[in-house]
Amino acid sequence: MLAAAAACGDDPQPIDPSPSPNPITETYTGTVTVNGAVTWGNIIVTSAGSANAVLRAVRPQLTMRVSDGSGNYVAGETVYIGNSLDDRTGIAVVHGWDPGTGTLFLNDRDGTLPTGEFITGATSGARWVNREVGNTVLGLALGTWSGTTCSIVLANDIAGEGAQVTGVVRDAGTLCVRVYDVGRLRGPAEVTVEVSHF
User: 102 near 66, Cβ under 8 Å?
Assistant: First the structure.
């Protein structure tokens, strides 16, 4: 690093050559159950600066309610809405299937999955009518950690994949991040959270 200074007089002031601190990024994974939460505490912040938490991944990404059909979908199989796999309006991959509640958990959607249409399993042949489909929505919060409790400071109660909360930390201390069900989960959700701070 090169530093230069110009001064008038005989008393030049020193230049601080120390670089700005680099942000620290930590990644956490876990599973949020229906009506449950996962908290990661003891996130050590060494200096003032911004802090943010990003919900990097949520699996399943979608939840679909189905009825009036037959068969059982298989985890990992491709499902589609349309006349065939080649002539379709939308496609996705099965994350899980709960025939007792008629709930299909999906990832990797491409295209549209209109309600009132049959969704067909390419491998299983299962065929049910899509009644409702929506993104998996969770709560994401950033707070201070007491050693046993996460005191929420910032929260986003409609967080999907890619959502974040951002704040400013005034001093060194300990943070926590929490991901929780906001009453919309129909089954467990696997999550990956990234926390960046100084």
Answer: yes
Q: What would the pLDDT profile of 81-103 be if each residue is shown by its tens digit?
A: 999 999 999 999 999 999 999 99
Of 131, 34, 130, give the one whose Cα is nearest residue 88.
Answer: 130
Tell me how far apart the alpha carbons of residues 170 and 42 are, in angstroms, rounded to a whole number: 17
State residue 185 phi and psi, 5-degree precision.
-75, 140
Neighbours of 92 (CB within 10 A): 25
* CATH code 2.40.37.10 for 24-59+137-197: no
Phi, psi of 93 (to 5 degrees): -115, 135
Domain spans of the chain?
24-59+137-197, 62-135
Query: Per-residue pLDDT averaged across 132-156, rounded?
Result: 97
Residue 58 near residue 104 (C-beta atoms within 8 A): no
